[in-house]
Amino acid sequence: MVSTPALAVNSGRQYLPVPATDNPSPNQFLLPLTAKLNSQDHLEVGGCDVVDLVAQFGSPLYILDEKTLRTACQQYRQAFQQYYPGESLVIYASKAWNCMAVCAIVASEGLGIDVVSGGELYTALQAGLNPETIYLHGNNKSLSELEFAIEQGCTIVVDNWFELETLAGLTGDRPIRIMLRLTPGIECHTHDYIRTGSIDSKFGFDPQQIEKVYEFISQQPSLECVGLHAHIGSQIFELQPHHDLGAVMVQWFTKAAQYGLPVQQLDIGGGLGIRYTESDDPPSIDEWVKAVCLGIVQACESQGLTLPKLIAEPGRSLIGSACVTAYTMGSQKVVPDIRSYVTVDGGMSDNPRPITYQSVYRAAVANRMSAEMSETVTIAGKHCESGDIVIKNAQLPKTQPGDVLVVMATGAYNYSMASNYNRLARPAAILVHEGEASLILERETYQDLVRQDRLPERLKQ
Ligand code: LLP
Question: 260 C-alpha vs ligand 1 centroid, how far in Å?
Answer without folding.
Answer: 32
